[in-house]
Structure formats: structure tokens, C-alpha cells
What we know:
heterodimer, A: 114 residues, mainly beta, 11 strands, 0% helix, B: 111 residues, Immunoglobulin-like, five-stranded antiparallel beta sheet, globular
Amino acid sequence: GAVVSQHPSWVICKSGTSVKIECRSLDFQATTMFWYRQFPKQSLMLMATSNEGSKATYEQGVEKDKFLINHASLTLSTLTVTSAHPEDSSFYICSASGGDSPLHFGNGTRLTVT
Amino acid sequence: TQLLEQSPQFLSIQEGENLTVYCNSSSVFSSLQWYRQEPGEGPVLLVTVVTGGEVKKLKRLTFQFGDARKDSSLHITAAQPGDTGLYLCAGGRTSYGKLTFGQGTILTVHP
């Protein structure tokens, strides 16, 4: 069964609104979660590393004020796309790690901004 | 910055054919993973290799890790339509930390 749950699976929002995506580890404590963005038929691009109880580390070129990440507990990290625009439309995927156990990926969230 | 060059980017073959996907880097990776991803879903881990020269087999899939731990390959024997998907290699210092992904290979196996 899925050990990392991502919600929602898909979301459509209007330009200018904000959208929150949740990533939950179901049966382990995730000290670290990673957020990726993926365009159609392309690979995963790491956006940020989220550590429980501390600020996220963003990759170069990723706007931290636009993509807000919160990792307030050992089982939940959230990614909020603020003031979304059509160019933010993408497939967002999280992965979670509980120490030295292998990474588990969520099933992704398809965001469409109209 | 560690980079992984994955090739080919696209592969379209007939059922029963063999194929190889390559993943190369100028950097050494302590751990390298291969994933398969279907549209609208997250990547699913196929294998992790950590030892230089390591060979792992998973049914019709054979994975190799280069002696210098800078390259890896995925070989599929007698491909089937069910093998169709996006194959991704990813490397990192560990199998549970930050990963660098290759560009991906879109494999289509025609019946």
C-alpha cells in the first residue's frame, strides 16, 4: 500500500488564487520531505527540501515566496502555490524519507491554473 | 552540481525486442536508483545499486552500476507492452536523501 499520500490528486484553480498541496507519510515519521515539479514527458526537478521544524531549503531559481513549504510535523509537509498563474500549471510530486529508509514518492498532484 | 545524463530520451520498439537505457555522470554517486513512472502517478522504485560493478536482476530487467560508480544501465529483455512508461535514473549520496534525476527515457513497446 501507499506509504506517502499526496492530496489532492488534481486541482484546477483560477489565476491569482493560492493552492495548498499536502504530503503525508502514513506509517513512518518523515524527517525530510522533498518537493518536485514535473512537466509533461520530462524528468523530475527538485524544488525544495523540507525538514521538520525548520525552514525549507530551496533550489536555485525556485521562488520561496511563491512556493511556500511548511513541515510542521513528522508526518505532514505542505506546498502552497501562492498567486498561481497558468505557467505554474504542472505535476507536483513529493517524496519522504524517515531517516535511513528508502525514499517513498507520493502519487503527485496535477495543478491546472486557468 | 551533480548531473546525470540519461539516454536515449525516447525509445519506441516492438514487443519481444531488447533495449538498454544508459545513465552517465562525471560525478561519483554513492547510491543510484532506477524508477518507472506511469502518467499521472509518482515514480516507483525498481532498484537501488550502491556497489561499483554491481549487477542486479529483476525478472527481465538487468541493472548495472559502473565500477567507478559514475554510470549505470538498465537492460530489458524481451520487452512487453506492459513495460511502457517513463524510466528515470537518480543518484545521490544515499538512497534516502536528495536525489539528482536524469532526463528520463520514455519507452513505448508496441504489441
